[in-house]
Amino acid sequence: MEIEKVYRVSNMDDALTLLENYKEEAELLAGGTDLLVSVREGKNRGNIIIDISSIEEMKKIEIKEKEIVLGSLVTFSDIVQNDYIKEHIEGLWKAGKLMGSPQIRNMATIGGNIGNGSAAADVVPPLLGLGAVLRVKGSGGERHIELCDFYGSDGKTALKADEMIISVAFSHIRNRKEHISFEKLGVRNALAISKISCAIYLEVEDKLINNIRIASGALGSYPIREYVVEDFMKGKVLNHDFIEMAAMKYSETLEKRLLGRKSWPYKKEASKGVFKKALYSL
């Protein structure tokens, strides 16, 4: 679709006014790592571009008393270079580090990675593991959406045409009983293999699993919480034998979702390996 107009804004109010006026005709330009490719290929959804890359208030990483807030224009490089995230939220930091090349990390934004709805979005599994909540604004005002409720099986998100993601927030990991991990099987240039990623939030006391959140990437039509596996693991003692049992349960759950796809025979074994690696890294 040919682009008719490009607006560059420097504040949220102007961006929201344009979104209200154009709705489905408009697309937001943040880092542009996905949108500009779509435009070159003629696959862009709208013919109006709203460039929000200059909105400074959406570029902040805020370490608050009760939560951490990432503005939607925070880049992957911002995450990698943040000492607090590196030290305390290793799974999120690792997802940022493993995402693309340094050039892409310098441009790609958190909000864009979430909002595009890609099944392989790198930042989404660890954010799901952290129980993240999105702050969204539109003509109808502000609302908060739990990230686990943001994606739909039809490939659409919960974002309305006149809304944009302002920030994403999650609670601190404050004690030594809590951990968040991330593991990813990337695409080698020589092979056409889809990525697999897995993030696990784990709270353990005396080897007993008090709480767990598991999120998969590229193992469904969108990044997804693995509630069945979580319920299977809660309250159990974490040891080598149980990790093998949990990996089998993880594979069985994926089989119900992916059976019949050409990639399933490969992903059946590879996903178990990624899952176990994420669990052992904790």
What features would you describe in this structure?
By secondary structure, the chain is α+β, with helices and mostly antiparallel strands. 35% of the residues lie in helices and 25% in strands. The strands form 3 sheets. It has a 5-stranded antiparallel β-sheet. A 4-stranded antiparallel β-sheet has the order 9-10-11-12. A 3-stranded parallel β-sheet has the order 1-3-2, with helices on one face. α9 packs antiparallel against α10 and α10 (240-258) runs antiparallel to α11. It is globular. It starts with a strand and ends with a helix.
Helix content: 25-40%
Secondary structure class reads alpha+beta
Task: State the distance separating the first and last CA atoms.
Answer: 46 Å
- Rg of Cα set: 19 Å
Run of helices and strands: EHEHEEEHHHHHHEEEEEEEHHH
Mean pLDDT value: 93
Characterize the biggest β-sheet: 5 strands, antiparallel
Number of strands: 12
- Note poorly predicted spans: 189-193
Which range does the strand content fall in?
15-25%
Enumerate how many helices there are, as a single number: 11
**Shape label:** globular
* Physical arrangement of strands within the biggest beta sheet: 4-5-8-6-7
What would a concise description of this structure say?
By secondary structure, the chain is α+β, with helices and mostly antiparallel strands. The chain is built from eleven helices and twelve strands.
Which structural traits does this protein have?
alpha+beta, single chain, 35% helix, 282 residues, five-stranded antiparallel sheet, four-stranded antiparallel sheet, 12 strands
